[in-house]
From TrEMBL:
InterPro entries: ClpP/crotonase-like_dom_sf (IPR029045), ECH_dom (IPR045004), HIBYL-CoA-H (IPR032259). This is 3-hydroxyisobutyryl-CoA hydrolase. It holds the Pfam family ECH_2. It comes from the Bacteria. Its EC number is 3.1.2.4.
């Protein structure tokens, strides 16, 4: 068992604390396996009525996977990364089906893999410090951990906007987009989490939850829905740039900086996720996409630019949207023979 995940019981509650605060609680493979084992143990323990997920430190629940390790493994062939993705997505699905209340406290930064451990739970709490995002296109990847379904099911085209730009959500946005359920002010957060040792989560929420700050995205629905409803990334960019809305132009510039391949695969993944509907089927799709990304050049290059060399100047291959054809996009969704997740 790793000390990067702290486990203990407290009254009625089984507590999981992600414990890599200096790394924003980024996930290692061992952490995933430890969380999974705890969930299985507590599912069979009548003394545990509720599971509570929090992050150590003051900065956030979890910034996602340890992408430097992902970078190194992808360069070495990707076998470890494929195993990581498999166990991560199986855990995401288990959380969605967990037989007891699963309370995720999304305080501070909650991104990527952190969303996968929280947003599929039954009770999802944000605070005024919450910053929630699926920023995979920044590193040449595609939203995963069931995030493509959450984004696809967000109102209108908000999810498409968030996926392509890699933009973050504040607490009001996370509630609007279906990533969270309740807002608890940080001034009451310790009382809320402490009360779960004795209270049912529904009662704790009634006692400590408050009205969330307004959503910033809600006021931008008109231009977002109009622009992102297009069928291609190229047309989305054209609509953003011709809309006359300053925020739309800014979004276009953010999109232009991302991997062209990642953008096109992301748009296809969200559209397909809408049609699939179930989390199990979407996770199956995401496993195919993520494994294909390990075999493409942009993931290693994106992580290099953002995390390893930190020059923020990725050299995407291909470099332009016009060079990413339908066949290249389809390759990411192709069956992988014996290497499938197999949930759906």
């Amino acid at each position: 068992m790793t000390t990067d995940v702290l486990l203990h019981t407290d009254g009625r509650a089984g507590r999981i604390v992600l414990n890599r605060p200096r790394a924003l609680n980024a996930l290692t493979h061992e952490m995933l396996l430890t969380v999974r084992q705890a969930l299985e143990t507590w599912a069979a323990d009548d003394a545990v009525a509720t599971v509570v997920l929090t992050g150590a430190g003051e900065r956030g629940l979890c910034a996602g996977a340890d992408i430097r390790a992902l970078h190194d493994d992808a360069k070495a062939g990707g076998a470890g990364a494929r195993s990581f993705f498999r166990d991560e997505y199986l855990l995401n699905h288990r959380i969605s089906q967990y037989p007891k209340p699963y309370v995720a406290v999304m305080d501070g930064i909650t991104m990527g893999g952190g969303v996968g451990l929280s947003a599929h739970g039954g009770v999802r709490v944000v605070t005024e410090r919450s910053t929630v995002a699926m920023p995979e296109t920044r590193i040449g990847l595609v939203p995963d951990v069931g995030g493509s379904l959450l984004l696809a099911e967000a109102p209108g085209e908000l999810g498409t906007h968030l996926a392509l730009t890699a933009a973050s959500m504040g607490p009001g946005d996370a509630l609007l987009c279906g990533f969270a359920d309740h807002f608890v002010p940080t001034s009451r957060l310790a009382e809320f989490t402490g009360s779960l040792a004795r209270l049912d989560p529904a009662e704790a929420v009634r006692t400590f939850a408050a009205d969330a700050p307004p959503s910033e995205l809600a006021a931008q629905r008109e231009w977002i829905d109009a622009c992102y409803g297009a069928d291609t990334v190229e047309e989305i960019l054209d609509r953003l740039l011709s809309s006359g809305v300053p925020e739309a132009k800014e979004a276009a510039e953010q999109i232009r900086a991302k991997s062209p391949t990642s953008l096109k695969v992301t748009l296809a993944a969200l559209r397909r996720a809408r049609a699939l509907g179930s989390l199990a089927q979407v996770l199956d799709q995401e496993y195919r996409v993520s494994c294909a990304a390990l075999e493409a050049p942009d993931l290693v290059e994106g992580i290099r630019a953002q995390v390893v060399d930190k020059d923020r100047d990725p050299r995407w291959s291909p470099a332009g949207l016009a060079e990413v054809g339908e066949a290249e996009v389809a390759r990411f969704f192709a069956p992988r023979g014996g290497d499938e997740l197999g949930l759906g």
